[in-house]
C-alpha cells in the first residue's frame, strides 16, 4: 500500500506503486545494523502529548519555526556497515527507471522505532532547496498501532493515518512545509529516499 500526501499525476503514482514488490525484496534482504541514538533533549526519553498533538504543532507554527528537524526523537538508527548493502541507491534506481523524471536520488534516513517510539512535529523543509522535492518512506510495521500524523492547515486539525501491518510507503512533497509526526506501535522500520521531480 502506498499513501500519497501530495498531489501528483496518476502516472507518477502508478510508477511509484509499481516498484513496491521489488522494493520490499530489497529492503527485506538488507536490514542493516541498529545503533542507539543519543537523546536530543534533557528530558526523560519518553513521548509527551505536545510532541504529536494539535496544541504542539500550533505552538511551533506560531513561533515561526519551519521545523526542519524534530525536537524529540526516540528510535534506533539503521546503518549499513562493512559488507552490508545499503538498499537506498537500488531503490533510487528502481524509482528512476519506473519514472525517469524522478531523479537526483538522496538517501534520507533509516530508523527503527521500538514500542513508544516517536518523532515529534517537523517538516524536513529546506527553504534553500531548488525545484520540487519528494520524499518516499518505506515503512514496515509489526502491528497496526503505528501512526503517521499530519497537520491540515485548511481545517486546523491533526489527521491520524494508521499504518498497516507489514510494508507500506508514505509519499510527500517538501516544496512547502509539510508538518508531520510519528508514533510507533511495537515495532516500526522506516527507510527513506528523496527525489527531485521535474
Features of the shown structure:
20% helix, globular, 12 strands, Jelly Rolls, five-stranded antiparallel beta sheet, alpha+beta, 4 helices, seven-stranded mixed beta sheet, 198 residues
Please write out the topology.
Elements: E1 2-4, H1 10-18, H2 20-29, E2 33-36, H3 54-62, E3 73-74, E4 76-79, H4 88-98, E5 102-114, E6 118-122, E7 132-141, E8 147-152, E9 157-162, E10 166-173, E11 180-183, E12 187-197
Parallel strand pairs: 1-10
Antiparallel strand pairs: 2-4, 3-6, 4-5, 5-12, 6-11, 7-10, 7-12, 8-9, 8-11
Helix pairs in contact: 2-4
Structure description:
There is one protein chain. The protein has one domain (2-38, 47-197): Jelly Rolls. It is an alpha+beta fold and 198 residues long. The chain has helices at residues 10-18, 20-29, 54-62, 88-98, and strands at residues 2-4, 33-36, 73-74, 76-79, 102-114, 118-122, 132-141, 147-152, 157-162, 166-173, 180-183, 187-197. It starts with a strand and ends with a strand. The protein is globular. The protein has a 7-stranded mixed sheet with strand order 1-10-7-12-5-4-2, covered by helices on one side. It has a 5-stranded antiparallel sheet with strand order 3-6-11-8-9, covered by helices on one side. Strand 8 and strand 9 (157-162) form a beta hairpin. Helix 2 runs antiparallel to helix 4 (88-98).
Amino acid at each position: 500500500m502506498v499513501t500519497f500526501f501530495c498531489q501528483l499525476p496518476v502516472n507518477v503514482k502508478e510508477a511509484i506503486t509499481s516498484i513496491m514488490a521489488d522494493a520490499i525484496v530489497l529492503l527485506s534482504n538488507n536490514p542493516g545494523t541498529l545503533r542507539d541514538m543519543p537523546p536530543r533533549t534533557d528530558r526523560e526519553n519518553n513521548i509527551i502529548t505536545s510532541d504529536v498533538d494539535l496544541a504542539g504543532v500550533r505552538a511551533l507554527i506560531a513561533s515561526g519555526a519551519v521545523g526542519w528537524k524534530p525536537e524529540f526523537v526516540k528510535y534506533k538508527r539503521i546503518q549499513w556497515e562493512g559488507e552490508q548493502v545499503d538498499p537506498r541507491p537500488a531503490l533510487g534506481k528502481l524509482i528512476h527507471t519506473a519514472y525517469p523524471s524522478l531523479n537526483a536520488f538522496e538517501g534520507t534516513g533509516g530508523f527503527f522505532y521500538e514500542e513508544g517510539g516517536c518523532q515529534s512535529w517537523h517538516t524536513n523543509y529546506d527553504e534553500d532547496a531548488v525545484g520540487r522535492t519528494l520524499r518516499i518512506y518505506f515503512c514496515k510495521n509489526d502491528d497496526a498501532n503505528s501512526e503517521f500524523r499530519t497537520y491540515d492547515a485548511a481545517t486546523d486539525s491533526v489527521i491520524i493515518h494508521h499504518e498497516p501491518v507489514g510494508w507500506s510507503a508514505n509519499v510527500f512533497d517538501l516544496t512547502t512545509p509539510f508538518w508531520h509526526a510519528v508514533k510507533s506501535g511495537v515495532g516500526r522500520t522506516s527507510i527513506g529516499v528523496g527525489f527531485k521531480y521535474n
